[in-house]
UniProtKB/TrEMBL annotation, chains A, B:
It comes from the Bacteria. Pfam families: DSBA (PF01323). Its EC number is 5.99.1.4. Keywords: Isomerase. The keyword Isomerase applies. GO terms for molecular function: 2-hydroxychromene-2-carboxylate isomerase activity; glutathione peroxidase activity; glutathione transferase activity. InterPro entries: DSBA-like_thioredoxin_dom, GST_Kappa/NadH, HCCAis_GSTk, NahD-like, Thioredoxin-like_sf. It catalyses: 2-hydroxychromene-2-carboxylate = (3E)-4-(2-hydroxyphenyl)-2-oxobut-3-enoate. Signal peptide: none annotated. The active site is at S15 (nucleophile). Residues 7-193 form the DSBA-like thioredoxin domain. This is 2-hydroxychromene-2-carboxylate isomerase.
Amino acid sequence: MPNRPVLDFWYEFASPYSFLSALRAEALADEAGVTLRWRPFLLGPIFAGQGWTTSPFNLFPNKGRYMWRDLERQTTRNGIRLMRPNPFPQNSLVAARVALAGREAGWTPAFSRALFTAAFSEGRNIAEEAVLVAALRQAGADPGQALPAARSEEVKGRLKAETELAKSLGIFGAPTFVTGDGELFWGDDRLEEALGWAADGR
Amino acid sequence: MPNRPVLDFWYEFASPYSFLSALRAEALADEAGVTLRWRPFLLGPIFAGQGWTTSPFNLFPNKGRYMWRDLERQTTRNGIRLMRPNPFPQNSLVAARVALAGREAGWTPAFSRALFTAAFSEGRNIAEEAVLVAALRQAGADPGQALPAARSEEVKGRLKAETELAKSLGIFGAPTFVTGDGELFWGDDRLEEALGWAADGR
């Protein structure tokens, strides 16, 4: 379709609200006639820039307690299982590189959904190769190609560049949705509004 | 009505998203058959407890820039005017005391709406007595009684106790909605969900 609007979906594999969006964004984007561009990045360097060495959900205990309870309610509403990953946050560096290695072949979204499910519905450790391999297989990707590609300098550089771009766009949390005209929408709660904005072509 | 469910609406006069909720909560609560209990408190002491000396919207510039843009979008959607108060955040100590002085007479909600409008739609300084007096008059309250009451030890103690209670409930931001069974819902985005939870009597 010509001129189908695009919405960038910036997500972080360690982020609980990115998990919520990853499982519901594609169907809503289809309904809205919007193409979703899946853009994994790392929040760690962005948090470090404001003096945080871990997730704000760990730094601020009341906020963290609230978030896990809220996530229980949201997953119940969405009909999905929640199992809290341990440790939290997960180390998402390799996961993000693997996701970016699938950009040309097109399996990034399916791999990302599978890996988010492993992390937050099954409590798996996404830094483990076996967990990455299982998610790749679910996405129809070949682990024998994807894992070496994820370790290549090219893909490592790609993740650095994406994270730098996120920072320069003013992104400070995940998920963040960015429209073609540069509007930022932060949080799973803003997904519908972001799609509406993108679809209106504003 | 017997056993009409109650939802506590914890708000801070300096908080932009409390402003959004204050202007729309009562109509939605009526629709849901829920009684809203207006509970002004101070976020300052709670922020101080986690080492913050000002609003997180000032501490984290990207978050602050995003918040003001988001607030522009939300007020446009809600059909209300936005004028950014200067300075931000406003000193809300006296405002919260005045609001609590109206609890028995029942003008706390009307006064709070008028003062939020002065702060965020007209850019007024809510620490100024003239601004408080105008909001009291709009709410049908007598400034000659309300202001001395707000300065009384009893009302000062009431605000301290409310803020302590908020902290002990695990409140870390505003607005926060708390149901009779102790569920917390943080943020203007969760107002509808909080009302639904309260109405279901869960």
